[in-house]
Structures are given as C-alpha cells and as structure tokens.
C-alpha cells in the first residue's frame, strides 16, 4: 500500500505563507494526492487534490514534484483559523488511507 | 442543510450492549465510508460502500456490521461493545473514491463504560 510521511508538527506566524511537505515515494501512477484538514472537534475537511500538475483553489495550492514522490501544500496567508491537523492522502483505486498528519500551529 | 449528518453525536453505553450509529448524506453521492479515530487521533477507514455494495472492509471485528438500506444511508451496527471500541466514528461520502472530495460528518463520540 502506498504510504505518506509528514512531519508531526509545524509552526507558522499568522499572515505568513505555510509550506506543508508530504513524502510518498511509493506512489503509483494511478494514485491521486489529496489533502484534508481536521479542525479541533470536527470532521476532516477537504482542502485540495491533484494528480500530476500543480493545483490552485480558494483555500490553498498544491505543488507536486515532477517524479510525484513528494508534494507540498501551500497556505498563502495563514490565519488562526488554519490551525488544524493536515493529512496528506493517496487514493488508489480501492483504498483511502489517512496518515498521521501534521499538526499546524499558528502563532499570532 | 447538513451534507453528511450522523446521529447521535454522543453515545455512552455499557460493555456488552449493542448500538447503532446512523449516517445520511443528501449530496447524491455514490460512495459512503465509516472511519474510526482512536484516542491517539489516528484516522482509519473501516468500511466503504459504493451504490449500496461493500467495496472496502478493513480488518474490523465482525461485531461491526455496516448496513446500507439505500445509497443515501450507511448505518453502523456494533454488537457486544467492548472498552476498546471507545472512539470517534466518522461517516463520509464522495461521488466516487478516486478523484473527488469526500464530505465528512461531525462525528459520533462513542464511550463504552
């Protein structure tokens, strides 16, 4: 099964960009890369996903390495409301697996 | 309207009891899931249903039985509850499990005493 590796925690200052890394060296050609986040006492929330090309949406940007063995979620201007656990997930044809995630702390 | 709703939000019960958690989605999605988040906050998939048919069944005790009466509902029945079943259970849905975002419910905190 394709696995992901993320740092346990990261800190960032409010209103600064945040780059959250994810390694997925065993990714297969059909795996999509998804990012979700979980705010305290809530269910996970979709952030962004991609396959090969970089992606942008209103919440974040996703930068995917050319060999697809790593990706980076970019929050362009972090706010206190972005403090959450961020999960990098691969979705092969028959399974969704959540890794341990990165707990993002935002400093005011 | 809540896209994915779970009931109850909190459930406290004694060991050995049988309980159910209900999940409904009003998004017209084909795929629904049950996840378990334990005390260490690891989020693990338990079951996945596509159009009422089971497509993923992780290593889960057979005391856990999902039931999908229709595409919009995926209920979780748990028999002979044990202390180790205490966790937060999340229901989710997506159009399919390959390419689209999944919507999660707010979770059901199950406490077995």
Keywords, separated by commas or semicolons:
heterodimer; A: 108 residues; mainly beta; 6-stranded mixed beta sheet; 4-stranded antiparallel beta sheet; B: 113 residues; 7-stranded mixed beta sheet; 57% strand
Provide a descriptive summary of the structure in words:
The complex is a heterodimer of chains A (108) and B (113). Chain A is mostly beta strands. Chain A has no helices and 10 strands. In chain A, the strands form 2 sheets. In chain A, strands 1, 3, 4, 8, 9 and 10 form a 6-stranded mixed sheet that branches. A 4-stranded antiparallel sheet of chain A has the order 2-7-6-5, with no helix packed on it. In chain A, strand 5 (55-56) and strand 6 form a beta hairpin. Chain A is globular, with a radius of gyration of 13 Å. With 113 residues, chain B is an all-beta fold. In chain B, a hairpin with a 5-residue loop joins strand 4 and strand 5 (43-50). Chain A binds chain B through residues 32, 34, 36, 38, 42-46, 49, 85, 87, 91, 93-98, 100-101, and chain B through 4, 33, 35, 41-45, 48, 55-56, 90, 92, 97-99, 101-107.
